[in-house]
């Protein structure tokens, strides 16, 4: 908080941090401020939320790819390795577009048009 009240010379500005480092070294325990603890906890919570969202998105994406694969196979027969790879690496938006194209496509190539 001292740095909020006045600007210290560089040598004095580093002194409190050097003292903390010495104390931490003596006690083998790092000093963690309440702000650091709260920030750390918030970071963990955000990480968990992001992980859950990513897992849900990937699950939806894999499910959509599986359904489109089954529909394509039923309509056009066994799929080649390139098409299977394309389905597995597609974005959710691409899969949605291909699913719509599948309704009117006469050939496998028409399903993947504009993508």
Task: Give the distance, in angstroms, between the N- and C-terminal Cα atoms.
Answer: 56 Å
List SSEs in N-to-C order.
Answer: HHHHHH
Q: How large, in whole angstroms, is the Cα Rg? A: 28 Å
Class of secondary structure makeup? mainly alpha
Profile the largest sheet: none
Helical residues, percent: over 70%
What is the arithmetic mean of pLDDT? Answer: 85
Shape: rod-shaped
What topology does this entry show?
Layout: H1 2-5, H2 10-27, H3 34-76, H4 81-89, H5 92-104, H6 108-111
Helix pairs in contact: 3-5
Keywords:
single chain; 115 residues; mainly alpha; 6 helices
Provide an overview of this structure.
This protein has a domain of 59 residues. The mean pLDDT is 85. Helix 3 packs parallel to helix 5. By secondary structure, it is an all-alpha fold.
Q: Would you summarize the structure shown here?
A:
Helix content is 79%, strand content 0%. The chain has 115 residues and is mainly α.
């Amino acid at each position: 908080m001292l740095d909020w009240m006045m600007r210290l010379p560089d040598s004095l500005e580093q002194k409190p941090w050097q003292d903390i480092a010495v104390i931490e070294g003596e006690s083998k325990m790092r000093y963690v401020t309440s702000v650091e603890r709260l920030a750390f906890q918030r970071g963990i919570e955000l990480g968990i939320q992001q992980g859950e969202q990513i897992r849900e998105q990937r699950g939806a994406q894999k499910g959509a790819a599986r359904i489109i694969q089954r529909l394509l196979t039923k309509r056009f027969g066994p799929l080649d390795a390139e098409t299977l790879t394309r389905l597995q690496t597609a974005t959710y938006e691409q899969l949605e577009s291909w699913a719509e194209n599948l309704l009117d496509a006469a050939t496998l190539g028409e399903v993947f048009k504009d993508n």
